[in-house]
Design brief:
Layout: E1 4-10, H1 13-27, E2 31-37, E3 50-53, H2 59-62, E4 71-74, E5 77-78, E6 95-99, H3 103-115, E7 122-126, E8 141-144, E9 157-160, E10 165-166, H4 168-177, H5 181-223, E11 227-231, E12 237-240, H6 242-248, H7 252-255, H8 260-263, H9 267-274, E13 280-285, E14 288-297, E15 302-309, H10 310-327, H11 343-356, E16 362-365, H12 372-381, E17 390-394, H13 400-408, E18 409-410, E19 423-424, H14 426-429, E20 434-438, H15 445-457, E21 459-460, E22 469-470, E23 474-479, H16 483-488, H17 494-500, E24 503-506, H18 517-528, E25 534-535, H19 537-545, H20 551-565, E26 570-571, H21 591-614, H22 619-624, H23 630-642, E27 646-648, E28 655-657, H24 659-669
Parallel strand pairs: 1-2, 1-3, 3-4, 6-7, 6-8, 8-9, 16-23, 16-24, 17-20, 20-23, 25-26
Antiparallel strand pairs: 5-10, 11-12, 11-15, 13-14, 14-15, 18-19, 21-22, 27-28
Length: 670
């Protein structure tokens, strides 16, 4: 039996192909479908055929090919359900452009979407020739049934829901025309609705997954240690976790959907929640000390409030600190442990406290026994990293082969005796905290190169490893050596020196703070005995006059010795370890000191003369007038600048002698 035929006329080839596919899928077994698009080409004049218009709008474009005896059915169209699940992902209340080729089709499509329940978004029809208002021009999302080329360039999110399909009523009208409705109506209806059922099942699965995801997210939010509350632009609560229930005494089922003011009555808290300039503030709520944080999610137009129990936070920090203490990764000393009230000590502690507030490397310089390790500990304990690890390594105490594995760690099998599974080095273990590089002046040139790379790149590579491991550590280094002299001798890298000496702290020797000796001595006595021990005045005078080349460590050893040999509760001159050494310092300066001082005087004189006749002195001119090399001149200028005798300008601005430098120069010529 020969199949019946119909002709489909559409405006665009995309509409033609989509509707041809739909008709073939549902009716193709019984009816032969021919289709044409007016934008492409049309057949000759049709006669005695059923003609389906894709829409009434194309009538003017195609009516000249519709001849006598033709019956025309204008298709009623509906949304392509296969793609509408994308629309459910759009936020509620979002304004979107609905883009179509004509005003009528745009309005019809919007009406169809609203009828099938997609009403959570606000549609703005758009078509060629329509002018958008300034407010509408800010819309960033557009929906279109296949007309992607018509979407304005300003739109960033483009959703193609596919060409609208022919609805069931038009399909039944086609069957009725061919007298097939009674025989095939039920089957065709089933085929049509099967598509909708498949989509419904798909949307049901999507909904189930969304529900499961929401439940999962609720469990996650309920599992955090802080109270979490969120509310929308109308003040309606959308999130209220279990910790928020504990803090407020309100079950979440009674809070969700209520206005935020229904839960929180405190005026100061409400003022904080609804204002825009502050992001955190301390409150007492129901007897609990809470730090409250607020932030706004612009895309969702939602405000989130976080309630953090400060008492619990302190307890957690104590627990974390205890854990670090158990591992030995903690700074034991604070600025309170640094004994002394002399102006120079108070000033040094003040500077150290300021340096601690930064994240920059610190180089602590001072003679042996001046307390460099105490200052390193104290800097960590007032820094933002105080609850993180503090690890120390002494470069003079470890051989180089062991030092490398201690600092950088190693992979399994890296060398004979390597532990199974490898080992994390000190830099890895200090991640997030501070590493103290003590006696940095004793490190080998080879190790200096590796340290420089770590400081520059903030990453390490284990011995035997093939990947770089990022680290976040603050570097505090210390030395009792003159690093500038070591640089001049080629024993220390100048680039590493400048990397370490971003911030510098110079510790005063004990002979410059003799006023602190009585308090230091009394402290050392209390640490070693509960007896009432005092120091005789002659001994105290001798202690104050001693040069103390070993500084505080030497003083402590001296007190320990005297306590061990004393015959009474008064420490006397006979108790001193070597009375001859505890006399005013009368030793002559070393030849090296004399030469260095003479060089400084000569350099200052050259700079002074150049300043008087030529303005600021360039380094090249200074070098020409001295027997020193340019490198030697540069290092000595650096020392003179540290003493405050000169000012070294940037670039070509040259060097100028200061008032202090002039005074020093005059004192040497007397």
């Amino acid at each position: 039996m020969r199949k019946q035929e119909l002709v489909l006329l559409a405006g665009t080839t995309e509409t033609q192909n989509t509707l041809q596919g739909q008709l073939n899928d549902i009716l193709g077994e019984f009816i032969t479908i021919h289709s044409y698009a007016s934008e492409d080409w049309l057949p000759g004049i049709l006669t005695d055929q059923l003609v389906i218009y894709s829409s009434a709008i194309i009538d003017e474009e195609v009516q000249h090919v519709v001849g006598q005896g033709c019956k025309v059915i204008v298709a009623r169209r509906t949304t392509n359900y296969e793609y509408i699940d994308q629309l459910f992902e759009l936020p509620k209340g979002e304004r979107v452009l609905y883009v179509n080729d004509f005003p009528q089709t745009a309005e019809e499509s919007i009406e169809t979407l609203q009828k099938i329940g997609i009403q959570h978004i606000h549609y703005v029809p758009y078509y060629p020739g329509k002018t958008l208002t300034p407010e509408q021009q800010t819309i960033k999302t557009a929906i279109t049934p296949g007309e992607m080329h018509l979407i304005p360039d300003s739109v960033t999110q483009k959703i193609n829901i596919g060409v609208r399909l022919i609805d069931i009523t038009t399909l039944m009208e086609i069957l009725e025309h061919f007298n097939l409705k009674e025989a095939l109506g039920g089957e065709i209806s089933d085929r049509y609705t099967r598509k909708i059922i498949e989509l419904s099942h798909h949307l049901s699965l999507v909904n189930q997954q969304t529900t499961l995801l929401n439940q999962h997210l609720k469990h996650v939010v309920d599992g955090v240690n802080d109270g979490v509350v969120a509310f929308d632009s109308r003040g309606k609560i959308t999130v209220f976790n279990q910790v928020a229930e504990q803090y407020t005494g309100v079950p979440s089922v009674h809070a969700i959907g209520k206005h935020i003011q229904y839960i929180f009555k405190q005026d100061s808290l409400l003022s904080f929640i609804f204002q825009n300039d502050e992001t955190s503030r301390y409150f007492t709520i129901n007897g609990m000390n809470l730090m409250v944080y607020r932030f706004h999610l612009n895309e969702e137009d939602t405000t989130v409030i976080i309630f953090k129990n400060t008492d619990e936070t302190i307890s957690m920090q104590k627990a974390a600190r205890h854990d670090l203490l158990q591992k030995g990764y903690i700074a034991k000393y604070t600025f309170d442990d640094i004994i002394g009230n002399s102006p120079i000590v108070l000033k040094t502690k003040q500077i150290a406290n300021r340096l601690a507030q930064t994240e920059l490397p610190v180089l602590i310089q001072g003679e042996s026994g001046t307390g460099k390790e105490l200052y390193a500990n104290a800097i960590h304990n007032v820094s933002s990293r105080k609850y993180q690890p503090f690890l120390a390594v002494n470069f003079s105490a470890l051989p180089e082969d062991l030092l490398e594995s201690e600092l950088f760690g190693y992979e399994e099998g890296a060398f004979t005796g390597a532990k199974k599974g490898g080992k994390r080095g000190l830099f890895e273990q200090a991640d997030g905290g501070t590493i103290f590089l003590d006696e940095i002046g004793d490190v080998s040139v080879k190790m200096q190169a590796r340290l420089l790379r770590v400081i520059q790149e903030l990453e390490i590579r284990r011995i035997g490893g093939n990947k770089n491991i990022p680290i976040d550590v603050r570097i505090v280094a210390a030395t009792n050596k003159d690093l500038l002299k070591l640089i001049e001798q080629g024993a220390f890298r100048e680039d590493l020196y400048h990397r370490l000496k971003v911030l510098t702290l110079s510790l005063p020797p004990l002979r410059e703070r003799t006023g602190d000796i009585p308090k230091l001595a009394a402290t050392f006595i209390r640490e070693q005995t509960h007896e009432e021990i005092h120091i005789s005045s002659p001994v105290m005078n001798q202690l104050k006059m001693n040069p103390w080349n070993g500084n505080i460590r030497e003083l402590k050893n001296t007190i320990s010795y005297m306590l061990a040999v004393r015959e009474s509760n008064e420490l006397k001159s006979d108790d001193l370890p070597n009375p001859v050494s505890y006399q005013p310092e009368t030793t002559q300066a070393t030849t090296e000191d004399i030469v260095e001082k003479q060089e400084q005087v000569e350099l200052l004189q050259v700079i002074y003369d150049l300043n008087q006749h030529q303005g600021r002195a360039s380094r090249s001119k200074i070098t020409q007038r001295t027997p020193l090399s340019e490198q030697q001149v540069r290092l000595r200028l650096h020392k003179l600048q540290e003493k405050g005798y000169i000012q070294v300008g940037k670039g070509r601005s040259g060097t100028a002698i200061t008032d202090a430098g002039v005074s020093f120069l005059q004192s040497q010529s007397l």
